[in-house]
Specification:
- It is a single chain.
- It contains eight helices and ten strands.
- It is an alpha+beta fold.
- It has an eight-stranded antiparallel β-sheet with strand order 7-8-4-3-2-1-5-10. A two-stranded antiparallel ribbon has the order 6-9.
- Strand 2 and strand 3 form a beta hairpin.
Length: about 220
Amino acid sequence: KPRSTMASAAVAASLDRNAQTGDLVVFNQRCDALVRWLPTAAACVYRKYGLSNTGRGFFDHVGVVYRNPATDVPWVLESRLGSVRMTPFEDRILSCPDDSLEVVIRRLRVPKGLDRGGLASAFVTALALKPVSGSLYSAPVVEAERRVQNLPMTTTRGALGSDGDYQRRSVAFVVAFYRALGILTSREGAEPRAVDGFSSFAFEDELRRHGARLEPDIHVLQMPR
């Protein structure tokens, strides 16, 4: 398996201390880590290697950081293969070499005075996450979508990615999370439009209109050349 000293315990601990709610963790997933879901694994292989590509630079999954304001502990929230998963940030970073070829972090900057911790906590509480094997999981995404309908944001069917492919669903979840923070709206410009190999997002222009922005990539794991 490709490994990288960048995904070390020291690096993970440093990132953990600085991770803030809304930061993105963007993954170039290993196709062999998806073999339990054969259609998804097959789509991954086709998209990354079907045209004699190397698989490098093809980011196809994204999670978002939630730093619990009550405990000051950061977690990674992901809409992944039918459910929402929340994993301690440091644990998720250390596990990256097992399921990803490359990982980058993009820091979120928000307007001064925005209570992102409180707003994000309301979103996470609405998901009603339950503990499973050291991580926290929600009910299936379709059920989680119904739970967030009462939050002060505009959501629609598929708002957490239940009706998308394996790339689109994770981006849709981030859009819903950012709507809960009030830095995206339901306008068309905020809709998730994942493209093959994304590491930037269609909603970045609208973030800037709300006084927020995503910083450039910080590489956590890089596949060997």
